Amino acid sequence: MPLRITLAGSTGWVGKALVAAVAASDDLELAGAVSRSAAGQDAGEAAGLPRLGVAISATLEEALKAPSDVVIDYTRPGAVKAHALTALAQGRHVVIGTSGLSAEDYAEVDGYALKAERGVLAAGNFSITATLLRRFALEAARYVPDVEVIDYASAKKPDTPSGTARELAELLSEVRQPATSKPVSELTGVRETRGGALGAKEPVQVHSLRMPSFVLSCEAVFGADNERLVIRHDAGSSAAPYVAGTLLAARRVSSFVGLKRGLDAVMD
Fold first, then answer.
1. For the sheet containing 196-198, what is the strand order?
2. For residue range 238-260, what is the model confidence (pLDDT) as tens digits?
3. Nearest 10 degrees: CA dihedral of 195, 197, 203, 208?
4. Suppose 160 and one of 208, 213, 228, 260 were both cysteines; which one would form an S-S bond, judging by CB atoms 3.0 to 4.6 Å apart?
5. DSSP character for 158?
6. Rounded distance, CA 78 to CA 167, Å?
7. Which residues lie below 8 Å from residue 127, measured CB to CB, with a gap of 6+?
8. What is the DSSP string of 99-141?
């Protein structure tokens, strides 16, 4: 029996690509779709495909009236947590591709998932190569304590930092040693130019650039005595890199209970 998918954000940049990928898959089925701007339209036609016979709903609650197994969310930061909690309350597993949630938000989602005995897989970036950026950066942080993250995105991206950068910084904070740089609290001048500190254990400074010509890039910059290491991921203009990772997450999210962060949590 195909895995039934409810897709929130079905007419977005990644959403349209996911509709096409699910429609072309032998083991997945689009059970529901959500987009306020396209409510009532056929999900296939809205994605530039032939009709799929799935009408787009204005709300996730409406879409969940149709039976499904997994909710995939690619909407916006202000809606994703409520969507996740709604999906869990109705017995669905959840894949979160929307960025902008805080560590506190994830902790709340984890609590709901444990109570519902469902799985949630969240990633700031479902690209395989972005996942490798994180893996390599975490390995480097075991040996080089001084690391900062630079996040690049288009001028219109509303959230700072990106989910990729936020997730990376929070994870680096857990494994790095104390930095040798002067604490921000001891600086003079304009302290804000040092970026924002993220992470609970050993906070990592994150700097966000928003300007034309960037799609999404993220780099971890490591500094040691007389040497420097930069690990960087650059995304192109296509949503294709995120589709395979998202569908892998959807196929495997039912294999555990609670919240896992990062695609590598389910990669062999």
1. 196-198, 204-210, 146-153, 216-224, 227-235
2. 888 899 999 999 999 999 999 99
3. -50
4. 208
5. -
6. 17
7. 233, 235, 241, 242, 245
8. ----HHHHHHHHHHHHHHT-EEEE-S---HHHHHHHHHHHHHH
How many angstroms separate the Cα of 172 from the Cα of each of 18, 142, 162, 185?
30, 9, 15, 21
Handedness of CA 191, 194, 197, 203 (dihedral sign): negative
User: For the chain, where are the E strands, in sequence order?
Assistant: 3-8, 28-34, 56-57, 70-73, 93-96, 119-122, 146-153, 196-198, 204-210, 216-224, 227-235, 258-261
What pLDDT digit, counting tens, does each position of 185-217 carry? Answer: 999 999 999 999 999 899 999 999 999 999 999
Classify strands 227-235 and 204-210 as parallel, antiparallel or unpaired. Answer: unpaired
Q: Report helix, strand or coil for 229.
A: strand
In this structure, are residues 20 and 244 in contact, taking their beta carbons and an 8 Å threshold? Answer: no
Among 33, 40, 31, 25, residue whose Cα is nearest residue 9: 33
Residue with tokens 């032939």: 50
Q: Rounded to the nearest 10 degrees, how much is the dihedral formed by the CA atoms of 209, 210, 213, 217?
A: 50
Partnered with residue 198 across adjacent β-strands are 204
What b/e readout covers 86-103, taking b as 16+ CB neighbours within 10 angstroms?
bbbebebbbbbbbbbbee
Structure tokens at 88: 């869990």
pLDDT in tens, 72-84: 999 998 999 999 9
Question: How far lies 151's CA from each of 101, 128, 133, 175, 218, in Å?
Answer: 16, 18, 13, 20, 5
Closest CA to 130 of 168, 97, 99: 168
C-alpha distances in angstroms, 94 versus 65, 123, 167, 196?
16, 11, 18, 29
